[in-house]
Each structure stands twice: as structure tokens, then as C-alpha cells.
Amino acid sequence: MLAYAVAVALDLRKIIKAYDVRGLVPEEFSPEVARAIGTAFARVVVLPEATGDARPAVVVGRDMRDSGPGLVDAFAAGLTAEGVDVIRIGLCSTDGLYHASGVLGVPGAMFTASHNPAEYNGIKLCRSGARPVGEATGLAEVREAAQAFLDDGAAGGSPMSDGGTAQVTDRDMLNDYAAFLRDLVDLSGVRPLKVVVDAGNGMAGLTVPAVLGTGGGLPELPLDLVPMYFELDGTFPNHEANPLEPANLLDLQTAVVANGADIGLAFDGDADRCFVIDEKGVPVSPSAITVLVGLREVEKEKAEGRTPTVIHNLITSRAVPDLLSAAGAEVVRTRVGHSFIKAQMASNEAVFGGEHSAHYYFRDFFFADTGMLAAMHVLAALGTQSHPMSELSEMYEPYVSSGEINSRVADAAAATDRVLDAYRLAYPEIDVDTLDGVTVSNWDGHPQWWFNLRASNTEPLLRLNVEAADQDIMEKVRDDVLSLVRDSEGRPPGDDPDEAGTGATG
């Protein structure tokens, strides 16, 4: 019999943010909290969505973190007490959970903290068909209901007591997931490729052998897989499972060159993101991968007589809209964040979407993100022509970017205003938009450059991304904006038009 007591007052705003649940275990995210969230999810999302006579159900998966099983059990108890069946699929990647939600037609919950350290865990929630649950699409209501349950167990019923007649069943979906992806991209005819894969001790250690190897009971592909850190270990003994940090790619870069491999693939902890390394050991930007995969999807869409639509967030390279538009796609720009881009994908019936953070979304995959399917498209593109990965990707990286740079500031709004005031003073005709943070652009002028400043949702940080036509201009814009952000006096940019407002600022 499960019994939980809430010993201290918890503020769920600390762990339930715009897109998902994420917190320290057990200080912030405990079994008590997981059960309250399960109860709230049942009442806010699952039961109102239920139709027909069949009992509503939720599919639940988890990554390799030690805290996962206990949190899943508590979450399931909250659901079953509300009369909701639970289908546990055990260890899986986040896109494996999305696949299960899509094919079973039920809401889902993935227990993962993605790339965060071992002491964290969290939940990514979705409606049936892998539709997103974000702050504007139910997550805020889930947080409010769960908070009420924790503050007063009698609020709206007795969520902290045991009961209910619903069932918990176990189901293995890994082979179905592998077969589903194999049906979307045929790799059987590619030239032989040596592929080094760094799973980072995360869930790719389970999914890569099933999808790209024979572990899922599927025929062998012409891929020579060289595994790195495939052992599932939520303590991440080799490096953090966050390929967005360059330091975490070093082992893979070295291994690609040492093995004479054609390509390297790195996955994050829950394997929903994929990063690519070329044969020289050089990382390929996610924007270039967005173009590469996007062009494949655009051509397939056009061949089927439809006008393709592709979604990208505002931090991706200008090469994304430039090259995909030239290929005949309608390109839609959206703000950063998976719940926003998924909503745009669905509302526009978009065939594909890409983010600067290496999240890739596919209409054929329930409009959800999947790093594995993106990797398969890259392997297909590489393996159906003779050029190396470095030459293939070079075509899609015509500009120079800074990557995302974080600055810790006391007042993000004031720092942003300093930057805007300085650039508007120097360039009255400058293009500014506020879709997500502020984007300042001289892309239609000379020299070409743009930058975006966005405040973090969770920390006192400003995130800067800069892109320009060449390295020199990018560095000047980058350094100038950083100087303004980090200087409370707000010295203005240089006033030489040839310097694009990026003169030295002391």
C-alpha cells in the first residue's frame, strides 16, 4: 500500500516550467510530487479528453536514472486512483514515448531530465497522439491542480489516498518503435558507412542497436557501428549527456578521426536530440542539418504533389529559410521551444521542423521531435552520394554564427533596453522584432548580420546568438553586444557604418 505524507510546503513553480517538469530528487521532485502531478494530469488532461466507453489510459516511459522507477510508480498511483489505466513501457527514449503515444492514441508521460546531471529527474507530458502539453496548453493548469493537492490533500477529493480500480500493465514497444522508423527511411541501399555513436550512457545505448543494428529484430544495414558509452548509467560516468556543450563532443570527435569513420552521431540523455560530427572530427551545425533533412522532406512532399511547409525557430541560421525557400518550401518562423514549434507544425501541416538546439520534428512522426529519425535522414543523404560529410554539410553552412552565449545579469530587461537604445541610435532604420526576446537585423543591408537576445525562463541570464556573412563581422557584433549587455553604463556601438555598429567599446 502506497502512502505519502507531505512534510514541507513545496512551490511547484520551481520545477514545472514552460515546457516540462524538472527538479532535484528528492528535494524538489519526490514521489509525493510525482503522485500529485499524476492526479492533476488525470483530471486536467486525460479525463476531459477521454471519449467512448473504454477506460482512459496513459502510456508512461522512463530513462536510465536510478530515481525513475519510484517516481513512475508514484505517478501511476495518482493516475489509477482517478480511474486511469497505466501502460508502462519501461526504459525508452523520449521519442520512443512519443511513438507509443502516437500509435496507441493515448496521452503520455516520459520520466527524464534529458541532459541534466544525475541528481535531477523530470517529466515530459503529452496528449494523445504525442500532442504537446506546455504552459499554454495545459501544463499551467496541471501545476495549479498539483499544487492544491500538495497544499491540501482534501482539495478536489483525496488525491493522496490509495484506491481506484484502474490497472497498471507492462508493454515492450522498442521493436515496434524501431520498425516504425525503418519504414520512414530506407537505409538498406546506402553505401557502406562507418558510424561512431556516442550515447553518453543515455537512452541511445538502447535505441541505436534496435534501430540501426539488429537488436530490434530487423535486417542488418550496411552500417559499421562503433559504439561509445552505450552502457545505461544515469550517473553519466564519462561525460554529461549534453552534446550542446562542446566539451562533451571531444571524445566523439577524437574517435571519428581515430577510426577513420564517415560520420559521428551524439545523442543527449533521453536521445531526442542528435548532433553530427563530420569525417574530419568537426561538428556540423544543427542549422545545416535542418537544411539537409528539410530538403529531403521538401522533395518528397513535392513529389507527392503537395506544397511543403517547413518550420524553424528564430535562432536557426538564415541559411535555413534562404535555402529551403529556394527549394520551393513555405518557411514559417517561430519562437524557441518545443511546445511552440509543435503547435506550428500541426497548425501548418508542416512536413518538417528544426531548431538550433538539434531538435528535429516530423509530420510523419506525429509532429513530434526525434533525434533518431533525423540521424537516419543524415545517413541516407550521406550514403546515397559519394561526397564526404564535410563537403555535404559545407553547402548548407554559408554563414558564420557565434553559438549561444549566456551572460549573467541583474536585470535582463534593462540590459536588453541598453542594447536596443544603442543600436536604434546608431541605425534608426535597423530592423527589430520581438517574436522571442529581441532580434536586431541588418540582413538586408551591408555587411549582413543579425543577433537575438532572449532572457532565460529559469535563470538571471541573457542568451545571445549572432550570425553574419563572415567571421570578422560576427565577432565584432558579438563583442559589441556583449559589452553593452555586461556594461551598466551602456556605451553605444561604433558609429562607422562599415563596422556594422560593431566598433570597439572599450
Automatic annotation (TrEMBL):
<dbReference type="Pfam" id="PF02878">
    <property type="entry name" value="PGM_PMM_I"/>
</dbReference>
<feature type="domain" description="Alpha-D-phosphohexomutase C-terminal">
    <location>
        <begin position="404"/>
        <end position="482"/>
    </location>
</feature>
<dbReference type="Pfam" id="PF02880">
    <property type="entry name" value="PGM_PMM_III"/>
</dbReference>
<dbReference type="InterPro" id="IPR005846">
    <property type="entry name" value="A-D-PHexomutase_a/b/a-III"/>
</dbReference>
<keyword id="KW-0479">Metal-binding</keyword>
<keyword id="KW-0413">Isomerase</keyword>
<feature type="domain" description="Alpha-D-phosphohexomutase alpha/beta/alpha">
    <location>
        <begin position="14"/>
        <end position="137"/>
    </location>
</feature>
<feature type="domain" description="Alpha-D-phosphohexomutase alpha/beta/alpha">
    <location>
        <begin position="176"/>
        <end position="281"/>
    </location>
</feature>
<feature type="domain" description="Alpha-D-phosphohexomutase alpha/beta/alpha">
    <location>
        <begin position="291"/>
        <end position="399"/>
    </location>
</feature>
<dbReference type="InterPro" id="IPR036900">
    <property type="entry name" value="A-D-PHexomutase_C_sf"/>
</dbReference>
<dbReference type="InterPro" id="IPR005843">
    <property type="entry name" value="A-D-PHexomutase_C"/>
</dbReference>
<comment type="similarity">
    <text>Belongs to the phosphohexose mutase family.</text>
</comment>
<dbReference type="InterPro" id="IPR016055">
    <property type="entry name" value="A-D-PHexomutase_a/b/a-I/II/III"/>
</dbReference>
<dbReference type="Pfam" id="PF02879">
    <property type="entry name" value="PGM_PMM_II"/>
</dbReference>
<keyword id="KW-0597">Phosphoprotein</keyword>
<feature type="compositionally biased region" description="Basic and acidic residues">
    <location>
        <begin position="484"/>
        <end position="494"/>
    </location>
</feature>
<dbReference type="InterPro" id="IPR005845">
    <property type="entry name" value="A-D-PHexomutase_a/b/a-II"/>
</dbReference>
<dbReference type="Pfam" id="PF00408">
    <property type="entry name" value="PGM_PMM_IV"/>
</dbReference>
<keyword id="KW-0460">Magnesium</keyword>
<feature type="region of interest" description="Disordered">
    <location>
        <begin position="484"/>
        <end position="506"/>
    </location>
</feature>
<protein>
    <submittedName>
        <fullName>Phosphomannomutase/phosphoglucomutase</fullName>
    </submittedName>
</protein>
<dbReference type="InterPro" id="IPR005844">
    <property type="entry name" value="A-D-PHexomutase_a/b/a-I"/>
</dbReference>
<dbReference type="InterPro" id="IPR005841">
    <property type="entry name" value="Alpha-D-phosphohexomutase_SF"/>
</dbReference>
